[in-house]
Amino acid sequence: MLEVKQVSKLYENQRGVRHIDFAMSRGEIVGFLGPNGAGKTTTMRMITGYLNPTHGTITIDGLSMADHPKKARQKIGYLPETPPLYPEMSVRAYLQFIADLRGIPVREQKQRIGGVIERLGLEGRERQIIRSLSKGYKQRIGLAQAILHNPDLLVLDEPTSGLDPKQIIEIRQLIRELGENHTVLLSTHILPEINTLCNRVLIINQGSIVLDGQPNQLANTMGETFEVSLEVKGPREAVLAELRGTPGVGSVRELAGEPTVASALAAEPTASADAEAAEPAAVVFAEGETVKVVVASTDKTDIRETLFYRMADKRYPIVSMKKESLSLEDIFLKLTTNEALDSAAADASPTPEEEEAVPHA
Description:
single chain, 361 residues, alpha/beta, Alpha-Beta Plaits, six-stranded mixed β-sheet, four-stranded antiparallel β-sheet, ATP hydrolysis activity, transport, Multidrug ABC transporter ATP-binding protein, ABC_transporter-like_ATP-bd, P-loop_NTPase
């Protein structure tokens, strides 16, 4: 449905995007994430035809945005971060105006407008002046204009911004329904929204795509080790020694709730040439015989069964065991920190050919 192939947008005095490359199929809802200034808005504006790329091609349902811009735009519904509204118009007059712009046949306009008004909960507001509406209702009108012509591709930039919790639930449900027959590219800063709505996520940083995958598989892809949190009943020092001596265990990190004064002192690192002693001293827990730890394997191997039999053999009952995984927030921060991407930024410098094509102010 959408193909973005090696697309770059270069500027003389500011960062653009470089070599953006991805495709979307009909029925996909794809979350588009990135920190401020990463290139999300620039990419969406190129997809919707508001900006021309410096290099690369964008194809909508087989139509090139460069060769057939008008036909390609007819297949797109776009909700920018600030909805494109005329504040002096009434809700119905505005939607009538959009219907005319979109070339919707006159005989269909009444039914189409009535349909989106009902779908977006705008009943009773049809004659109200847009200027007098709340931000939430303005956001709904912005979404109404995006779906009025029944587009194949929806590009939504922060669609739930400014909505109350009830409205957010309703808009999310609408996006799910639209995703059954449409392709949806959804930009949002609400990371749980990605898990709720999207079957795929793209993360962009410093003008390049740094991740493309399914939300429920990202943790396994990004994790370098297998981690499990344990609560074990037994003598603290003995339990820790057994865990650290278990084959396949790379590290054991204790977890504490509210440390006592004694535990805070014990947590200070000790000066020793020995690498083992150089680690922070273990925390003394008020729970007494219960030890809470996070155990990491030396690689991605699942060590839960090994830990179970090791503790059972020593008669140290495991009170609880839970696999740890990176959250979407953890993955996002890991991929968008400057330290992790210094080399990527260096590689993203324009080639001589690209520099020649950079537009000058």
